[in-house]
Specification:
Blueprint: H1 2-53, H2 57-62, H3 64-68, E1 78-81, E2 88-93, E3 100-101, E4 115-117, E5 122-123, E6 138-140, E7 147-148, E8 162-164, E9 169-170, E10 187-189, E11 196-197, E12 210-212, E13 217-220, E14 233-235, E15 240-243, H4 247-250, E16 255-257, E17 262-263, H5 269-273, E18 280-282, E19 306-308, E20 317-319, E21 326-331, E22 338-340, E23 345-349, E24 364-366, E25 371-375, E26 388-390, E27 395-397, E28 412-414, E29 421-422, H6 426-434, E30 439-441, E31 446-450, E32 470-472, H7 476-481, H8 493-526, H9 531-538, E33 545-546, H10 549-555, E34 564-567, E35 571-578, E36 581-588, H11 596-610, E37 620-625, E38 630-635, H12 642-646, H13 656-675, E39 691-693, E40 699-701, H14 735-738, H15 743-759, H16 775-784, H17 794-802, H18 804-820, H19 831-846
Parallel strand pairs: 2-4, 3-5, 4-6, 6-8, 7-9, 8-10, 10-12, 11-13, 12-14, 13-15, 14-16, 15-17, 16-18, 18-20, 19-21, 20-22, 21-23, 22-24, 23-25, 24-26, 25-27, 26-28, 28-30, 29-31, 31-32, 33-37
Antiparallel strand pairs: 1-2, 34-35, 35-36, 36-38, 37-38, 39-40
Helix pairs in contact: 13-15, 13-19, 15-18, 16-18, 17-18, 18-19
């Protein structure tokens, strides 16, 4: 019996051995086969997506290439990872295709899909199956016709970072947002729907950078935004929010729109605008009662009823119209393009700045429906950028200026319902004839005298001059349309005219003589060095040499056409000989310094450029500024640009050793600008055409100045609201989301230059087809598929094929370039790291010594700062996921 039992156990044990092996093999085989099935499922699922879209016949015509191309990875705007049978679908972009019907439910079966974008279509619903794609991190269906309570299923997306469903027909409450993973969400856009609820739902979203909930039916207060330290874009307009505004939170943002709510209470401009990061502030149509500069540091601490925009430096748009603001305006924000203070209770005289221009940068100025008094400032009439000016329905008095008006862009001028007196100057009609002025309203004032000739007629002018009893016109059609009386004619007008002719003939010779004298005086004045520039140099504010205009004229044969070697936005570039040395002279266009702001910008540029000195930066040798033009004198770099050498327009071509040296030197120059200059300078237009080469083919980085100056903020919050810079093909894709240039933008552009050095291909060329139109996309694809040989410049291929070290070097630079052009600014190295890595590559692969150019000493600028890490456009609290808020196919 015992033996029988023992035998049974032995038999059972023997039977378990093959079972165990079968189980073990299944564990090894099943995952691999499961992976293959999953990969195959991705391709099959995309075919299902196509069939679901083609269920609407018109969609088939829109997505024609989806019908003819058998491989979904080659469909327009479909990105896969891997190639062939191992490819998985990662990103789909259906933006602006005018597609109709429901969102294809089979999207939910794409287990590797991370980004889906379908803005500006006619999708009308999101089926439940869609929410099975749990790995999605980026969802964008803005401006469609999607209805229903789709937010209730958001708990499926625990990896979601960006949710953009603005401008649809959604309903329900925003409470469902609390089902998302609050620790990773960075951007939410539900604007233009019918959502209800309040912001308390969003408590805990600490990494949120963009929040757009405008045009809904939300209520409550805004206290929750205090707990969103990374927030920089806030749009809550057209809701029913009430209570006060948490000012200390707004001060760290870039764009704020809280218009058309029920917010109230006094607030202070200095509390909002110091530290100066806000570029756009819209608080219009609320219930604010007072702008009170009562905090420490205010320039008007004793005047509780004044509005002082001194704090709003660097702000582009300020909208405070439609509130109950009272008091007087002390100053205007000089950098703002738009200022709306209309429909308030502001009063007092408009600020008299004493400058040549009243408000230099403004394009739209709305001061209507207030109680402003006093005359219109003289500088008001020389605002070259002004497009719309509305000062109507105030109590302004005084006369209109008789002198010339320089407002070439003005389209609308409304001064109606004031107390203006005197005649209408002929300069008003000059604006309509010679420039863009299309609408003029001077009605209901105390103006008198005849209308000047040349005023256009039509509907825009039918009632432009009524309500001025003293105005008259002898043009019957114009007089009838404007309800004006006929002007009385003096007696014996013809006789008086002939009598005047005799007197005029006597005066002609005298006038000619006077004009000659004035012309000579003006010539002397135009060639005199600007007093402000001389003062700045004498006081040590600008540390460069002043060079008289006559010397620069001599150096260039009076700026002869054959001395011109280039043209740019600043003006023309001439080659000259100054004191026996070749120089490059940049001469501004004649009109660039007619405005005070332009003059100050030039002086700031000279101050910055004269304070930096590096062997791989083009040196500023001197400057000159007169009444008519501004000039910068640089060292002449004889061998042209890197672009000319790469594209065979100059020289005999560059070998890999030379290209690697140029890359190292350029990286050192940019690292110097980012980490040693004080304050840091961002180049903003790094490209091969801005890298000059000397006789030894050493790099000299050109074209940097005040327009690239980074704001002097904490290193983690480098924002910039200056004008857009950059060249297509080199521009950081993040710019199209944040509209901000940072140090990481320079890194991206430098990465493109590295790819140019490897390939000698243009950064942007649509002839290469859509997938390869940008050099970044093309290089990314070829490097990651081990096809680098298809990318390398044919001139380098002989060495590339024969020398393994060269091949390794080029591959290392290519991999560094791809890190520099990473879609995420946070994942790119900074320029200091790039410079160190290229130096290491030069040493390892080519033993490139710096002895040939180290004899040129680097002269540090005054008060150099310690080197520090460079930050991207987000604050340090944003976290590593901040890069996600952008178009999925621009990353």
């Amino acid at each position: 019996m015992a033996r029988s039992a023992r035998g049974c156990l032995q038999a059972a044990a023997m039977n378990l051995v093959p079972c165990f092996l079968i189980v073990l093999l299944s564990q090894l085989v099943i995952p691999a086969s499961g992976q293959r099935a999953r990969v195959a499922a991705d391709i099959q699922t995309m075919l299902k997506v196509r069939d679901e879209l083609f269920g609407i016949p018109e969609n088939k015509m829109i997505l024609a290439d989806w019908s003819t191309e058998p491989d979904p990875c080659n469909w327009t705007r479909v990105e896969c990872e891997g190639v062939g049978a191992s490819a998985t679908v990662r990103r789909i972009d259906l933006n602006q295709r005018n597609l109709a019907g429901p969102v294809p439910p089979s999207f939910g079966l794409l287990l590797n899909l991370t980004h889906i974008s379908a803005d500006d279509n006619r999708f009308d619903s999101i089926p439940a199956n869609f929410f099975k794609a749990k790995q999605l991190r980026f969802i964008s269906f803005r401006n469609n016709l999607i209805s229903g309570s789709v937010l209730e299923s958001l708990s499926a997306f625990q990896s979601l970072r960006v949710l953009l469903l603005g401008q649809n027909l959604l309903s329900g409450r925003i409470d469902s947002l609390s089902r998302l993973n609050k620790s990773v969400v960075q951007a939410i856009d539900l604007a233009g729907n019918g959502m209800q609820g309040n912001l308390s739902t969003l408590a805990g979203f600490t990494k949120l950078t963009v929040l757009r909930l405008g045009q809904n039916r939300l209520t409550g207060e805004l206290a929750t935004i205090r707990d969103m330290p990374a927030l920089y874009d806030l749009s809550l307009e057209d809701n029913s929010f009430s209570g006060s505004v948490p000012l200390s939170t707004l001060s760290g943002m870039v764009s704020v729109n809280l218009s058309r709510n029920a917010l109230q209470g006094p607030f202070t401009l200095d509390d909002i605008f110091v530290p100066g990061t806000i570029a756009s502030l819209d608080l219009s149509d609320n219930r604010f009662s007072q702008v009170a500069p009562q905090f420490s540091g205010s320039r008007n601490s004793s005047a509780q009823s004044t509005v002082d925009f001194f704090w709003a430096r660097g702000v582009d748009k300020i909208l405070l119209g439609g509130n109950g603001l009272s008091g007087s305006v002390v100053s205007f924000p000089e950098s703002a393009a738009t200022l709306n203070l209309s429909h308030n209770s502001l009063g007092g005289d408009l600020p008299q700045t004493g400058k040549a221009t009243f408000f230099a940068g403004v394009e739209t100025l709305l001061l209507n429906n207030n109680s402003f008094t006093g005359p219109i400032p003289a500088g008001f009439w020389t605002m070259a950028n002004a497009v719309t000016m509305d000062l109507s329905r105030n109590q302004l008095n005084g006369t209109l200026p008789a002198g010339p008006l320089f407002m070439p862009n003005l389209q609308t001028l409304n001064l109606s319902w004031n107390l203006l007196s005197g005649g209408i100057p002929a300069a008003i009609s000059n604006l309509t004839r010679n420039f863009r002025l299309r609408t003029v309203d001077l009605s209901f004032n105390n103006l008198s005298g005849p209308l000047p000739p040349g005023l256009p007629q039509g509907d825009n002018y039918s009632y432009s001059f009524i309500g001025n009893p003293g105005l008259c016109s002898d043009d019957d059609s114009f007089r009838r349309a404007n309800l004006l009386g006929r002007c009385s004619k003096p007696s014996k007008a013809v006789q008086a005219l002939w009598a005047g002719v005799g007197s005029m003939l006597v005066l002609v010779l005298a006038i000619v003589g006077v004009l000659l004298v004035l012309w000579r005086k003006q010539m002397v004045k135009d060639n005199r060095m600007d007093a402000d520039l001389v003062k700045a140099v004498n006081h040590g504010l600008i540390s460069t040499r002043l060079i008289p205009l006559r010397q620069l004229k001599t150096a260039t044969s009076n700026f002869a056409e054959d001395a011109k070697i280039g043209e740019g936005g600043f003006g023309s570039v001439y080659k000259g000989f100054l004191e026996g040395k070749e120089v490059a002279i940049k001469k501004s266009s004649n009109a660039i310094l007619q405005l005070v702001a332009s003059k100050q910008m030039f002086m700031n540029e000279v101050q910055i450029m004269s304070s930096v000195n590096h062997r791989y930066l083009v040196s500023l040798l001197g400057c000159c500024m007169t009444n008519k033009s501004a000039l910068l004198v640089f060292e002449y770099v004889p061998q042209g640009t890197l672009a000319e050498h790469l594209y065979c327009r100059r020289g005999q071509g560059l070998d890999w050793n030379q290209r690697l040296k140029i890359a190292r030197q350029t990286a050192e120059a940019l690292s110097y600008l980012h980490f040693t200059a004080n304050p840091p300078i961002f180049h903003r237009d790094v490209k091969s055409a801005n890298i000059l080469l000397d006789d030894q083919l050493n790099a000299k980085v050109a074209d940097f100045g005040i327009s690239k100056l980074a704001p002097n903020l904490d290193a983690t919050t480098h924002y910039s609201s200056l004008a857009v810079q950059g060249t297509p093909g080199y521009i950081d894709p993040e710019y199209y989301v944040s509209y901000q240039m940072t140090g990481k933008s320079d890194v991206y552009s430098f990465g493109v230059v590295l790819l140019e050095l490897i390939t000698s291909r243009a950064p942007l060329d649509y002839r290469r087809g859509e997938r390869d139109s940008t050099l970044v996309k093309m290089a990314t694809h070829l490097v990651r598929t081990d096809a680098l040989h298809l990318l390398v410049d044919p001139m380098l291929m002989i060495v590339f094929d024969d020398e393994e070290e060269v091949k390794k070097s080029i591959l290392s630079v290519a991999e560094l370039a791809l890190r520099c052009v990473d879609r995420s600014p946070d994942d790119r190295p900074d320029m200091q790291q790039v410079a160190v890595e290229i130096e290491a590559l030069s040493s390892v692969h080519y033993n490139v010594s710096k002895a040939d150019d180290d004899d040129m000493d680097v002269i540090p600028i005054a008060n150099p700062v310690a080197r520090r890490p460079q930050a991207s456009y987000t604050s340090s609290t944003t976290g590593p996921g901040s890069r996600e808020f952008q178009s999925p196919f621009e990353r």
